[in-house]
Hints:
Layout: E1 27-29, E2 33-34, E3 38-43, H1 49-62, E4 78-82, H2 87-100, E5 110-112, H3 123-136, E6 140-144, H4 157-174, E7 177-183, H5 202-206, E8 209-216, E9 219-226, E10 235-240, E11 246-250, H6 260-270, H7 277-284, H8 288-300, E12 305-307, E13 310-312
Parallel strand pairs: 3-7, 3-8, 4-5, 4-6, 6-7
Antiparallel strand pairs: 1-2, 8-9, 9-10, 10-11, 12-13
Amino acid sequence: MSVDNPVTPFETKRAYQLDESPPDARWLIESLWADSGVGVIGGTPKSFKSWLGLEIACAVASGTDCLGRLGVTRAGPALVYLAEDDLSQVRIRLEHLARSKGLSLEELDVHVICAPTLRLDLDRDLKRLAKTVGLIKPRFLLLDPFVRLHRTDENNASDISYILGHLRTLQRHYDTAVCVVHHTRKSSSSGQRGQALRGSGDLHAWGDSNLYLTWTKKGLELSIEHRSAPCPDPLYVELDGGPTPHLTLVEPDDNEPPPLTERVLAELRRLDRPITRTRLREKLAVQNKRLGDALSELERLGRIQRTKDGWKI
């Protein structure tokens, strides 16, 4: 390339000339999400990822504590797009969340993109999204779920990095946090939650703040991962099924589940007639081999007996 071309150089500054960020401005939500950070909410199906995304959006939009405990540092409008939900269902969820925070829906500064489709792999839609963000100026943008927002190969690093690069540009240009909801694989041998995200590893590397919802023996675990801050201890959440459903923080259940033999005995004591092995397996939701081992052990100890109609005490 010729050095005589009229090309404008990039602006630079000495390190000491860069703006300082006050300590309390590093968070959008204390310890949960970085201020103006991008990231992923990951989890298996039915792990309440969308509920968590909307809870963050409502907390930011109202300035109320997220999950009832985590303070919002810089409140402002939220912009959401839920590709899998009917707009009337989105309204119902947001109304429940607003009421759980002691607010009316009218007081909640959440804006919903109403387009039937939004494709992050199409330049036209990327430009429309940028225009919308420029108009609303949200503090938090929620896009849910990632798999419905493009038609590229999610395992293709080049395709995914193109989309994530545009979302990073949105974040920097409009000073907004961007959250993408994405699925994790049902099982992963990696000890790092982000490695279980489906598709390209760019999704994990992209995030400034990533949240992972995982069902464990203690309950639904919320793991938090930050690029520029220590990872706090996991939290545990559950969906409050009252008149205003919403996610809430709970203490983990540290009690070990009873052995399968005890569960079998408890189930047989409740019955006044024998039960077949097949029906017992359905009730206890266990693998057939595990149940067979437990039944054999209890029969050996003389605690249960097998009849032509099934098992009984």
